[in-house]
Design brief:
alpha+beta; 38% helix
């Protein structure tokens, strides 16, 4: 017996419902608290949008973003304006702590005169106010507030840690006492470098600053500085050495454990310089394998890829006339005239960028009042923004 038309119709209705369900399923609603528009102001002739995307990927990675392979197009989305990127941080693989902190920072940025005028924030200013503003960086990465807490979460005690005294340091003015703990996984590692007064060989070394790092789940190192009382510090004072701020640590370490830069003396009964260098070499092999296993958008094996992140903040802090003209919507000639009394310089790391200005001089004449930033990215500054303290005081 042949099926009746009614039978076919009864089969068609459920199928139609299923198909319509697939067609009308709503797209995931983005978390607007974690969405912001970033503005690219071209800094040098060879700079491309790909450079900006790669630099931002590294910046987000330094903040702890997992950025799984294939996620970048969902995180950095083009707009109708080729100079504007819409960044969706909820797609970047940040943990809950980081998302809460980032939402606070983005909310503060969206309330600035710059955002009200351009509906976007300069990509360089965004990087400086997240990665290179220590109070913000600490909140995003979840760095423990005290040195005692840092030691505690890693179970660091006299029995579990190793010591390496650096009598002649290329970083510290005096001695540098390195305490560290390792394990099978980089997630178990923790390093503390103490700097201060006195000499270890005379038994009167007194630490006053502690520079630390451990390894985040995405394979990047997390840096921090604590003062003599074990509380957050924005950077090691220059009179104690060249360690500077967390941004300086990132630049120097290049996502790896650093070995010795200069010869030092061995101390009887302590780890020798050769043993320390051998240990670091093995640790870096393990760390590189761990980073590769993350399958991230960040190219850990590309030696110079991180430079794109550095160029984002260098070209912002030390802008060319071309970049300033893009920021102000004018010509390079007009910029040079307006800044005729400002001194220019060449960046020693990137001399090919030509004559550059300093951000403080540029922001002082900007047509829109700028959000205050640190006066220095790598070294301690006389001002450090803290959106969280500002919000708490309201």
């Amino acid at each position: 017996m042949q099926p009746t038309p009614k039978f076919y119709f009864s089969l068609f209705i459920p199928l139609l419902i299923v198909l319509l369900g697939y067609q009308t399923a709503p797209a995931p609603i983005p978390d607007e608290r974690l969405v912001i528009q970033l503005r690219w102001c071209k800094a040098y002739p060879a700079e491309t949008g790909k450079n900006i995307e790669k630099g931002l990927a590294w910046a987000l990675s330094f903040l702890g973003a997992e950025l799984p392979k294939g996620s970048l197009p969902q995180v950095l989305r083009p707009t109708e304006d080729p100079a504007i990127l819409e960044i969706h941080l909820e797609k970047a693989g940040f943990n809950a702590t980081a998302q809460t902190a980032l939402a606070e920072i983005l909310d503060s940025l969206k309330r600035t005169p710059e955002y009200e005028r351009f509906c976007s924030v300069d990509v360089g200013r965004f990087v400086v106010l997240t990665v290179h503003s220590p109070f913000h960086y600490y909140q995003i990465t979840g760095l423990p507030r005290t040195l005692a807490s840092f030691r505690s979460i890693h179970g660091m005690n006299e029995q579990s840690t190793r010591h390496f005294p650096v009598i002649r340091s290329s970083i510290a003015v005096g001695n540098r006492d390195i305490t560290f703990q390792t394990g099978a996984s980089p997630r178990d590692w923790a390093f503390i470098a103490a700097e201060g007064y006195g000499r270890m060989e005379y038994g009167n070394f007194t630490p006053t600053e502690y520079e630390v790092f451990d390894v985040m789940p995405n394979g990047q190192l997390r840096f921090g500085i604590y003062d003599q009382n074990g509380h957050w510090e924005t950077g090691t004072p220059a009179y104690l050495g060249e360690a500077g701020k967390p941004g300086n640590c990132m630049w120097c370490h290049e996502s790896s454990v650093q070995t010795l830069f200069s010869p030092t003396f061995d101390v009887p009964g302590q780890l020798t310089a050769q043993a320390f260098k051998d240990t670091v070499r093995l640790l870096n092999t393990t760390l590189k394998q761990f980073q590769r296993s993350r399958k991230s958008e960040v190219e850990f094996d590309s030696v110079y890829a991180h430079t794109q992140h550095e160029l984002l903040y260098v070209t912002f802090m030390e802008p060319s006339a071309q970049r300033i003209a893009a920021e102000w919507g004018t010509t390079t000639g007009e910029v040079e005239y307006l800044l005729r009394h400002a001194t220019t310089h060449r960046n020693t790391e990137f001399p090919w960028m030509g004559l550059l200005y300093r951000r403080r001089d540029v922001d002082a004449l900007a047509p829109v009042r700028a959000t205050p930033i640190p006066s220095n990215v790598r070294e301690t500054a006389d001002f450090e923004p803290d959106f969280f303290a500002k919000r708490a005081n309201k």
